[in-house]
Amino acid sequence: MIVRQLGAALEHSARHYPVVCLTGPRQSGKTTLLKYLYPERSYVSLEDPDTLEFCITDTRGFLNRGLEGGMIIDEAHRHPPLFNYLQGYADRSPPGTWLLSGSNNFLLLQSVSQSLSGRAGILHLLPLSGSELGAALEDPDWETAAFRGFFPRVRAEGMPPELFAKDYLATYAERDVRLVRNIQSLPDFQRFLKLCAGRAGQLLNLASLAQDAGLSVNTVKDWLGLLEASFLVFQLKPWNESFNKRLVKSPKLYWHDTGLLCRLLDIRSPADLQFHPYRGAVFENLVVAERMKRQVHGGEEARLGFWRESNGLEVDLVEDSGRGLILWEAKAGQTLASDYFRSLQMVGDLCGVAPERRFVCYGGEEGQTRSVGQTIGWRDFLEKTEL
Predict the structure, then answer these.
(1) Which residue, among 148, 165, 150, 147, has the nearest Cα to 267 in the 3D structure?
(2) What CATH class has 6-124?
(3) What's the CA gap between 179 and 289, in Å, rounded?
(4) Where in the chain is the domain with CATH 3.40.50.300?
(5) For 101, phi and psi rounded to 5 degrees?
(6) Could you report the per-residue pLDDT of 327-348, keeping only the tens digit for each?
């Protein structure tokens, strides 16, 4: 069992809320984590037809089973009226009685917000982080790490990453999406996924994306929201727009898992990444997604952004660590160059960020301390728990 960083935040939430809702992408390890932390709890899944029928025909009898020892309810969104009943049960239950999870985050969160507002703690479990893997991170280079991705079935169970990504995306498009949206043309949606992959690490231009996809801007907004609710992608906002009027206003688009990103970019092996036109974008995505996981798995709302001025001055990632700002630049190459620090120095001086809080994460292994910042190799970046 790989120890998940989110476990501490989940247990803390369960000490204060009668209901805890654990969301995240499909197969990120939600059920495994709940069973590991609460092995004595009764576990039920509404994916099971008999259990679902019991829940539908006798909802009170179903919930009464959890009154004494608590209950883990997986795929809870499959019977939305359950949440109306659970509202009354939550009001007379001690903290941590009801632990909910599900693979369709949109429907699950919608039901929680409508019926359990103020009664439920909500946490998100993303794919594994490098620090959670620790010594199990045996990839020879960052290209292999990015290609494999960080889902538990690949990392802990040894499933071939190309097979996992293919089946994951097919299941997502053919099953999960249709539970939420009546998308008539799966080929259109699959093309949309690929177009979003091609924009990883880029400023998001909805009009351009809509034109390339042959869709309306409203449809693109709707489908993009669906990808975000499913924890496939996330938008990184410009850092503190009021700080400098020259900062761009558009967000940048990233994927939560680089393994899925590589699949959608038709990258078939780690070797393909060595000369691929999206090599730099994949590495940048790896860096940004890793810092996102570190904050989300701490049970906090992510405090991340990027710096980009209209004159071209840019820093890939601005992170509020809770102890001040950290600036990050991501460079896929294995050889360090002095100009890697140019933007870090200019933005760092402007924002008052000390040199020891400015990092260049690069595709090599050697770490260095310089007068304007520090370099950190990709492996240390992934494995270190604190930076």
Answers:
(1) 147
(2) alpha beta
(3) 27
(4) 6-124
(5) -150, 165
(6) 999 999 998 888 889 999 999 9
User: What crossing angle do the helices spanning 206-213 and 217-229 adopt, rounded to 10°?
Assistant: 100
Q: Which helix (H) or strand (E) holds 98?
A: strand 98-101
**Residue 242's pLDDT is what?**
53
- 15's tokens: 């000490």
User: What per-residue confidence (pLDDT) applies to 338?
Assistant: 80
Residue ranges of the chain assigned to CATH 1.10.10.10: 139-383
Asked whether the whole model's pTM tops 0.90, one would answer yes
Confidence at residue 171, expressed as pLDDT on a 0 to 100 scale: 85
List, as one string, the DSSP characters of 15-42.
TT-SEEEEE-STTSSHHHHHHHH-TTSE
Q: Which residues of 317-326 are buried (b: 16+ CB within 10 A; e: fewer)?
A: bbbbeeeebb
Sign for the pseudo-dihedral over CA of 189, 195, 196, 197: positive
CATH architecture of 139-383: Orthogonal Bundle (1.10)
Distance CA 340, CA 362 (A): 10
pLDDT tens profile 273-286: 999 999 999 999 99
